Amino acid sequence: MGYPKEKNFVVFMPREKIVIGNWKMYKTAREAASYIEELIPLIEGCKTKVLLAVPFTTISTASKAAKGSPVLVGAQNMNDAREGAFTGEIAALMLKEAGADFVLLGHSERRHGFGETNDFVQRKVVRALQDDLIPVLCVGETADEREEGRTEEVLREQIEMGLEGVPKEESEKVILAYEPVWAIGTGKSATAKIAQEAHAFCRKVLGDVFGKKKAATVPILYGGSVKAENVNGLALEKDIDGVLVGGASLSVETLAKIVLNCKGK
Ligand code: PEP
């Protein structure tokens, strides 16, 4: 079972559930192949879409292992330039040719660990779309920003700046991930209520950017200490279209449980 594609892009049905596993800097190509071979039968028949954001060196092997299955493979980062003298960087075209269909952009570990700005992330979003990769724009406030009552201000800025220059007609190629920094890798997930409030606000901002009708169909995923036990409570919320899973996605059995439990009403 493959994915419907429009030109070179995978097309997601409005509001279908999506689970993205972010492997971070874990797993070799060999480990990726056996993970995907194990995963495919575990999620057979499940309607939830499964995307794996894998290390660069793993993309080619992982996308071959996933071919013809409901699993899509993508990258965790890229440069904004099409090509050039940027030692150690990687371009969208290279990722696409290796077999990537999507790319995480502006993940909090990039923003806070590697100093990525909203401007830089925005240029990457535009480049990803130009070179046929689905951008997964990651946004989220820190614990201090939440305590200071600045969550909405931060989210609005990250979304508006991150999507600047994206034409309205391209809105269906964009995925947004709300990932509060205080919940990533801490074991302390946002409650379903807190996540829903933030998602509703993100959808409102998307409405200001793309128009209300288009904003209603942009998938907004929650990320931050998602586990098999808490995913269903999150997925039942009106504006939560799925989840982005870091640590828990490293175990194939756990990711499969998360995929099977990620169901709406
Ligand atoms: C992430 O890497 O985007 C993430 C949400 O990590 P974790 O699930 O480990 O909190």
Secondary-structure blueprint:
Elements: E1 5-6, E2 9-10, E3 18-22, H1 29-42, E4 49-53, H2 59-66, E5 71-75, H3 92-98, E6 102-105, H4 108-113, H5 118-130, E7 134-139, H6 143-147, H7 151-162, E8 175-178, H8 192-210, H9 212-215, E9 220-223, H10 231-235, E10 242-245, H11 252-261
Parallel strand pairs: 3-4, 3-10, 4-5, 5-6, 6-7, 7-8, 8-9, 9-10
Antiparallel strand pairs: 1-2
The chain binds phosphoenolpyruvate.
Phosphoenolpyruvate (PEP) binds next to strand 10.
Number of domains: 1
How much of the residues is beta strand, in percent? 15-25%
Number of helices: 11
At the first level of CATH, what is the class? Alpha Beta
- Name the structural class: alpha/beta
**Small molecules in complex:** phosphoenolpyruvate
User: Unreliable runs, pLDDT <50, ≥5 residues?
Assistant: none
CATH superfamily: Aldolase class I
Features:
265 residues, two-stranded antiparallel ribbon, alpha/beta, binds phosphoenolpyruvate, eight-stranded parallel barrel, 10 strands, TIM Barrel, 11 helices
Structural notes for this entry:
The protein is of the alpha/beta class and 265 residues long. The protein has one domain: Aldolase class I (TIM Barrel), CATH 3.20.20. It contains eleven helices and ten strands. The protein has an eight-stranded parallel barrel with strand order 3-4-5-6-7-8-9-10, surrounded by six helices. Helix 1 (29-42) runs parallel beside helix 2, helix 1 runs parallel beside helix 11 and helix 7 (151-162) packs across helix 8 (192-210). The longest helix has 19 residues, at 192-210. It is globular, with a radius of gyration of 17 Å. The model has no long low-confidence stretch (mean pLDDT 95). Bound molecules: phosphoenolpyruvate. Phosphoenolpyruvate binds next to strand 10.
